[in-house]
Write a structure and sequence with these properties.
Elements (H helix, E strand, L loop, with lengths): L1 E5 L4 H12 L6 E5 L9 H4 L7 E3 L5 E2 L2 H5 L5 H4 L9 H27 L7 H20 L13 H16 L9 H13 L1 H5 L17
Parallel strand pairs: 1-2
Antiparallel strand pairs: 1-3, 3-4
Helix pairs in contact: 1-7, 5-6, 5-7
The structure holds glutathione (GSH).
């Protein structure tokens, strides 16, 4: 059986977990928590980068990205449903890339706080990443994607956007909600259509100053 190494707050891991549920593949992948900060965690032998999500195949080869999951032999046919054909494909790929970028910028901000003492942090760097997040959110507020009618209707763009917003709820106290009302309504509708989104929620856990390097 394939194994997914991830951690509950990981937005990239959540993408894969949601996809497994949406595609009816949950029974084909065992989910095992990983701690990227722990050198003794077997994660680093499974994925030399020590990053999650890591998909460990039965043949013991592993990969680190959600796109790799879409391409495994057992799931690529099912995953095709997340990527519409024709003209509808471009906006879905664009939304996925933008929402992935919001997550990347958010994670860099979290790591700046987690791995550096206050005196070594660079406010300009934080502002640079925050601006990427804000421009991405503004794009989605102004161009809110169609609300999926049901889990079967979800595409990779919507899936990734929901996980990005969910991560901002966990790590940034949901501040985005105050200034992006259309996105708030969109996420509520997404959650109503996709029960697995509720099932994969974790409580808000903003990163405290000088937090020990633990989970992402
Ligand atoms: N591009 C990767 C990003 C994965 C990623 O950034 N994962 C974070 C946790 S959410 C991680 O593993 N961080 C630990 C590290 O960078 O060492 C993907 O799409 O899966």
């Amino acid at each position: 059986m394939m194994k997914l190494r991830s951690s509950p707050p990981s937005p990239f891991g959540r993408k894969v977990k949601l996809a497994l549920s949406i595609l009816g593949l949950k029974g084909e992948v065992e989910i095992e928590d990983a701690n990227t900060a722990d050198p003794s965690d077997s994660l680093r032998s499974q994925n030399p980068l020590g990053k999650i999500p890591a998909l460990v195949l039965e043949t013991a080869t592993s990969s680190t990205t959600a796109p790799s999951f879409w391409n495994t032999s057992t799931s690529w046919r099912a995953a095709a449903r997340l990527f519409p054909e024709g003209e509808a494909r471009f906006p879905v790929l664009r939304d996925q890339t933008l929402a992935d970028g919001i997550m990347d910028a958010a994670i860099l901000r979290v790591y700046e706080k987690r791995f550096k003492e206050q005196k070594y942090r660079d406010p300009a760097w934080d502002a640079y990443q925050a601006a990427k997040m804000e421009r991405g959110l503004k794009h989605f507020e102004d161009n809110t994607p169609p609300v999926p009618a049901s889990a079967a209707d979800v595409n990779a763009g919507a899936l990734t956007l929901a996980c990005a917003l969910g991560y901002l709820d966990i790590r940034f106290a949901g501040e985005w909600r105050q200034t992006h009302p259309k996105l708030v309504a969109w996420l509520d509708a997404f959650e109503a259509a996709v029960p697995a989104f509720t099932d994969t929620k974790v409580p808000p856990a903003p990163v405290p100053d000088n937090a020990p390097a633990l989970l992402q």
